[in-house]
Amino acid sequence: MTLREQLRAKISAAFYHHGLLCASYPVPIILFTSASILTCCYPLLKLPLPGTGPVEFTTGVRDYSVPSHEPHGDQGERPDWYRGPPVAYIQQVLVKAAVSPWDSSLVPVDVFRSPLGQVFRLLEEIRNHVYSDSSGVRSLESLCLQVTDLFPGLRRMQTVLPEHGCLLVSPGNYWQNQRELFDSDPDLFKTIQKHEPKGLHTSATLRDLLFGVPGKYSGVSHYNKKRVVTYTITVVLLSYDARFLNSLRARLKQLHPSANCSLREDHMVHVHFKEEIGIAELIPLVTTYIILFAYIYFSTRKIDMVRSKWGLALAAVVTVLSSLLMSVGLCTLFGLTPTLNGGEIFPYLVVVIGLENVLVLTKSVVSTPVDLEVKLRIAQGLSNESWSIMKNMATELCIILIGYFTLVPAIQEFCLFAVVGLVSDFFLQMFFFTTVLSIDIRRMELADLNRRLPAEASLPQPKPVPLRTREAPPPPRPSPHTITLQTPAFRNLRLPKRLRVVYFLARTRLAQRIIMAGTVIWIGILVYTDPAGIRAYLAAQVSEQSPLGDPGVSGLSPHLAVAPVFAAGDPTSALNIHPAPDPTPVPENQSQGHHSSGRALPLPPLSHSVPQITWGAEDEEGWRRLSFRHWPSLFSYYNITLAKRYISILPVIPVSVHLSPQEAIETRHPHDTRHRPPLIPKVSADLQTDLTLYKVAALGLAAGVLLVLLLFCLYRVLCPRNYGQNGAAHGRRRRGDLPCDDYGYSPPVSEISPLLLRGHSMDIECLASDGMLLASCCLAGQIRVWDAQTGDCLTVIPKHSSSGCWEQREGLDGLSREPEEEDYFPLRRRASPSRLALFTDQPDLTPLIDTNFTSQPPSHLSTPPKEGFDYGSLVERAYTEHEPPSPSSYPCASSASSSPSSAAQPQRRLSVGDGGGASSQERGSGSGSQAAADWESSVWAMELRGNLIAAGRSSGKLEVGLWDAVEGSLRCRNEDGVSGITALAFLNNRIVAARLNGSLDFFTVEINKPLALLQYRGAPGQGSMPPSPCYTSEDVISCQLTRSVQCAHQKPITVLRAAAGRVVTGSQDHTVRVYRLEDSCCLFTLQGHSGGITAIYIDQTMVLASGGQDGAICLWDVLTGSRVSHVYGHRGDVTSLVCTTSCVISSGLDDLICIWDRSTGIKLYSIQQDMGCGASLGVISESLLVTGGQGCVSFWDLNFGDLLQTVYLGQSSDSQVVRQLLVLDNAAIVCDFGSELSLVYVPSVLEKLD
Amino acid sequence: MSLTPKFLTLTAMSGGAGAGPRGPYMSFITDRNTNLLIRGGLLFSVGVFLALVLNLLQVQRNVTLFPPDVISSIFSSAWWVPPCCGTASAVIGLLYPCIDSRVGEPHRFKREWSSVMRCVAVFVGINHASAKVDFANNVQLSLTLAALSIGLWWTFDRSRRGFALGVAIALLATLTTQLLVYNEFFQYTSPDFLYIRSWLPCIFFAGVITMGNIGRQLALVRGGSEHLLMRSE
Predict the structure, then answer these.
(1) Candidate from B57, B118, B228 with C-beta closest to A1103
(2) What is the ipTM of this complex?
(3) Of A250, A334, A1218, B162, which sits 20 to 30 A from A624 (CA to CA)?
(4) How far is B231 from chain A (nearest CA, A)?
(5) How many Å lie between the alpha carbon of B51 and the closest alpha carbon of chain A?
(6) CB of A418 within 8 A of CB of A330?
């Protein structure tokens, strides 16, 4: 076993167990999945809606002038929103204050009390700053943005936000900008916290607004180890005055010089805000999604045999949508905001990839054997597809990894999204979709069980039951579930083309491969068109490797990496960015100062004494760390919208304030020293301060691994090793064991075993049924009558029946009557030897066959006079007469021991030998000479109505035989015709015979009942049909030729159909004729075909369809004789034609089954069948089509053209083609199968369709 | 025996003759009319919806400019655009199956809803591309869209009369648009082909194919209702 195979087996086993797990604990798993989806989507709350992210544009400060409203000719790189003055200019004064040197006598509150106190002095300074030159005196009051009332809904913020004056925001607003209030505040922290909203807060909070830096960077907390407090004073200016601002900047710098500050001050950032909620922008995107989901729905709709397609479609949608949300959420969590481009591309990727796996999974699970337990089915389905799923997953991840290592930022971002999306999609498919599928299939099974129970309750006993009664037929036989068909290793499935396409797609995963290839090409293009990224990366590599490398160049690499790579407050990297480093670089120990704090050691004394104020690149544009909505929310408090407008953010003014411990102690509030907060352990404090993203990630990974281990342990503890696999070592079957089609998908194994009716010696020629009885005639001329419910052979009428003896046969024991007649034994054993020889693999039905004739139903008991008729001698004579022509090819069974020696034999003989026998005796006596002529003729057409069989023979004779429960006898015969009867129709009491020479004979069957009362036999299950009259054996039946239309057609009549009082004939002379049944009057001659007519359909609703040798199908209006539509559908003859209320189904010699829309004549779809399989058709219900094939019958869903099930008729079936197929009323199907008849009960699975 | 008809006795014949012709002709006719009405209504609403959505795309990108007072009205487009598109799509959607049945040769390529949905999605995608993707020049854009439209036809229609009808209607619609722009009902921001954008015919063509596809599918679903429609040729 190679490694690959081992891996494959392991993966398969893993998926198998996973499937078992999912199917065993659906509810916990769905809860777990939902929880993880929600957790992953939580970071999305912080994300603005797509399209609302602000756009930036940077200009220099030096040559700044307010942009004009009118667009210039040469806009250059200016965005089109950069027109006109901004809403406001934002000037931030970034204050970093620290008490230095730090004294051990200080309490933690001192870290921020006195630095915060400095804000009031600075505010004073800013407010009072005046710049005067030749053009006048300017103060802040004249330049700033004057605000009026707060937005009405924000009354509670009145105390902290300025009103009616300059918009000047600082932490001093907490204390109404009054030093006295600040000094008298016993607990600063509480004041700050007071205004924070409770619970979750995602957008800009008041604290962020006032401090101007994110809360965690402000340093206002008890555990601030850096002991540096950062805050900003934000001045919002209405107009820009460079000189005023410069003088303010100079003044503040002069007051509070920042020694090592090297912030650039020459860039001004204009931020353009889009509309708050871009619903208008979302609509097309949402529409695309809706269409795509509809596509998903219509695709999943094709998957049959699930309980609720809606549920599965919803699950598929949820899977795809959640995986998208999860990927975006996770990426946001790790600091990656999706650009619009990625957001537009990604859905398509996920949808296509997700849909394919979902389809494959569903199909795989559905095609597992139906009789298995649900969880086993799920597990099997999963494990069947595991290898391909994993392989594709691995391939995709590999490609994405390759893309990731190109180190081009755009590609990296995309790859990150793709990886997360793929993984989350896979996760959801494995957990969510599989579980939903298992629930669905379980529900289906339950529904199935409910439907099945009543049927099984009424299962007839296998014991001998009373004789079949015609009046009360036994209930429809339930399909024997215990018998499973022996399935050969390989079988050809006939699938519709569309399904093949789906299978093909699913098998080759074409779309996935195309997308993979597309991704590779796309990455390639990006790499090709963006050589800068590669070049920079190469340069960085070279500089790192070469000893002479300039360390400044290596500073480029952080640019290439993702933003969070920047270590917070790392001065070396910050300084290295600038080409000209500060002349007095920071001593190395200072940068060590807060790096070493990560260790679990007591703080070094050095950092104790000197808390350093450092300025790094991140301070340059500190507002970037704020929320997207910081500025919009600040302005919205004053009812100023920033939508579609922009603000200009001026370079910050850095202010460093160093306070001596003395000052800090002086500003102390008496409360501060009283209750100092309890010191928390240093380790956790250190951890809290210095946890970087990577550490979080590592912890998360560890937690994940731990969780997986825990779950695994739980799984091992909770779940038994084998989920009720019933002792079998492997409940699942390997793929090879199942009958597969070319595409590797196994069809559901049929649980239907067809009932084979054997007895005919040659191929079956004619088949007729009226729902209760079934008559068949083989090429040898033997007619057998079967019970359509149970499949028992009731009567055998041998070929030479015209002599008057219609042989009767009772199951298998018919021969035990005259064991002494050894000579005739072979003949009479005609049925049983073959049965004994061939029926080895079939359930023995002999016990079912009733032999107890003593308990005959009253109808038979009441048959008057029971003559003591020597039936045996009659039969004997008949046999002696006709011994020579009887086929003698049957092997003589050794004994008749299988027949029960019934004590009731004499009585039975009496009861069966009734009037029918008498009449046949009369005829038989005079028909000896006739026999030789009859021998030449074979039965060409046969019809069965009531208990009369009409048989048309090739010699032109029409025979009407009577059948009742125990007797077959010829009742009348008409020998007028000379030309062979090609077709018969038997409707009410009329028989229409079509002959080879084109003539049409109408016969009337007359019954003279001695009792003068017609008994009506109830026609079960057929409300629309008038009950057929019941002919009893004592009736005298005569068959009279009422009318003969000599030249109905010029050429042989090929088809004859009768319904709704009309007789329709089709002939080889290209015409169809419609006759009225009552008076044999020709109503229409329908011309339109250019070939002989081969198929005709007419039903109660007067729909007439005809098909011809030209491949055309015509629909006619029977009332007017006009042609409704005319379509060409087949190459070659149309062999069969059936209509439902909505469509017409035709099959042709080209082995194509076409389904046409009945009203429009448009072909809906067609099904290609195997060679020579297309001839037989039957419609069971509006949506269920059955076709005969090579040794099998197939059930199709007419609405979609899906193959529902294929029932194989036998084992050695490959050469036999089902040519004739009859649909009985009890939804059973009779079809010929070589010399056998097959009775197939429609599988219960199919009932689920409705 | 060579003439022995072997497949004759296939169908179980239903006995009895009682039932006469079913239903008066009027019911068929009204059925057909309501059927047409329903189809037309559905197609109209689909057309209106698509017009609104796709117009939004164009307006967002400032491809089309409507008079300023109209912009404030519903859905940022002129009131007459969606009804026009809806009517056009209804006409097209009814025309296609009608022509199919006139020719007598039914359209038999990919008749299923998922394919139709795919077609609609591709159509929206083409519109997306025309509005959102920045191409180097207009010729490139138009060529790309033309290729996409032809691809759409090849993927979802593949019938010659569909192509002919699509081209004809697209040309007609382009002409109408030109007239509209000429009479200053609206205008394009950067016309490059006789007052309009050169990709407009491609969009129209794709739209015709899409609506035809929907119409055919609807005709399939609705047409196969209860009765065989009695039509005299």
Answers:
(1) B228
(2) 0.71
(3) A250
(4) 6
(5) 11
(6) no
